[in-house]
């Protein structure tokens, strides 16, 4: 019990670099609430797959994702198993649960609740940074800078709850801009406290698994909502193959080597690309699951509607665009050939989205699955990347 009462500790430095660093049980428990949040976001998108519906999905997805990012980067440097840390994480989980509840009509009648929930989640993070800075003088410049920037953003979200739409959403945008800009402009402080290079890839991988899990749930839901027949079963298999292939090409190529190299050379741009480059990937993965669900639920003898076809093909294309960026910048396995492969898959999927007006659902899901499986085949032909 005494060890639980100790203050936060710095988890980086030469004395700790040799220690294996993995996600803690508290972090894994914390991730559970994001399983619910991603599920609610996907369900909300499923009700409106139009362009405006997708943009609304993105607008709500980004704050939820950013809350997870904030907690992950704090834990990377300052995590400790104390009573105070556990309680603060519990409060933040309640705030994320409130975000999930307010996702439905989150850009309308529930937007006040969504704004207050986000402000509360970010407020907890501000407290954690101030707490860490109080006990760790060497980290105080970084923690004060982060706490100041995040506090400004949280205040804007709090104020937004008391102003009418559309000014509320303008404040959301400004608040997110401040949130995103804070780590981007803190390089001079980050140089003194580089990130732990074992912990970060694992945490991002876990969130990717959460989003891929939603895609698997969507396949199951799609089959459960229709009368079983050979066509729906085959479409479900194609949908699963798509998710499995995306899992394969990401986790086959993800490695901590790029981050280790960046840490050695103090190339903090790699950290930023790692952070922001994963956003379109997880958005695409979450939306792809909804697209598969709609394709399975569509009458097998009717052409897949334009919105559903664009959602499925466009979201998977977005995944490959993100993977191409990550390959090209060396965030994951640096390879020009695999960058071209991912861009080729993106182009092929967009062709299907544009020209596949009369295609049946089973045809669209089959083509998407074949394109994704081809990416796995190309990687296997080229050989496995070396791991550090």
From TrEMBL:
Protein's organism: Symplocastrum torsivum CPER-KK1
InterPro entries tied to this protein: Low_temperature_requirement_A
UniProt keyword list: Membrane, Transmembrane, Transmembrane helix
Protein name per Swiss-Prot or TrEMBL: Low temperature requirement protein A
Membrane-traversing stretches: 51-75, 87-107, 113-132, 144-163, 169-186, 206-224, 230-252, 273-297, 309-326, 347-376
Protein's UniProt keywords contain Ubl conjugation: no
Pfam families referenced in this protein's UniProt entry, alphabetically: LtrA (PF06772)
């Amino acid at each position: 019990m005494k060890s639980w009462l100790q203050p936060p500790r710095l988890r980086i430095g030469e004395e700790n670099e040799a220690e294996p660093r993995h996600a803690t049980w508290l972090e894994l428990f914390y991730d559970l609430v994001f399983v619910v949040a991603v599920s609610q976001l996907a369900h909300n998108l499923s009700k409106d797959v139009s362009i405006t519906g997708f943009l609304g999905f993105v607008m709500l997805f980004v704050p939820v994702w950013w809350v997870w990012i904030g907690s992950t980067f704090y834990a990377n440097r300052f995590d400790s198993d104390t009573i105070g840390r556990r309680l603060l994480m519990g409060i933040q989980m309640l705030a994320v649960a409130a975000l999930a509840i307010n996702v439905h009509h989150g850009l309308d009648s529930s937007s006040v609740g969504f704004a207050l929930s986000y402000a509360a989640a970010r407020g907890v993070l501000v407290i954690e940074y101030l707490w860490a800075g109080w006990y760790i003088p060497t980290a105080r410049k970084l923690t004060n800078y982060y706490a100041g920037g995040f506090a400004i953003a949280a205040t804007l979200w709090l104020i937004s709850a008391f102003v009418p739409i559309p000014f509320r959403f303008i404040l959301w945008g400004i608040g997110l801009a401040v949130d995103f800009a804070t780590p981007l402009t803190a390089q001079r402080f980050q140089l003194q406290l580089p990130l732990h290079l074992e912990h970060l890839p694992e945490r991002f991988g876990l969130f990717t698994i959460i989003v891929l899990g939603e895609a698997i749930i969507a396949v199951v839901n799609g089959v459960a909502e229709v009368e079983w027949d050979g066509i729906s079963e085959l479409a479900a298999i194609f949908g699963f193959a798509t998710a499995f292939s995306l899992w394969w090409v990401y986790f086959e190529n993800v490695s901590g080597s790029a981050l280790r190299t960046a840490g050695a050379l103090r190339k903090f741009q790699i950290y930023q690309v790692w952070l922001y480059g994963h956003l379109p990937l997880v958005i695409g993965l979450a939306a792809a699951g909804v697209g598969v669900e709609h394709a399975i639920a569509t009458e097998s003898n009717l052409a897949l509607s334009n919105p559903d076809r664009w959602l499925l093909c466009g979201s998977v294309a977005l995944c490959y665009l993100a993977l191409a960026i990550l390959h090209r910048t060396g965030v994951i396995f640096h390879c020009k050939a695999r960058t071209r492969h991912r861009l080729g898959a993106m182009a092929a999927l967009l062709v299907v989205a544009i020209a596949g007006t009369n295609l049946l659902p089973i045809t669209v899901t089959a083509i998407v699955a074949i394109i994704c499986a081809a990416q796995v085949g190309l990687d296997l032909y080229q050989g496995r990347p070396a791991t550090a």
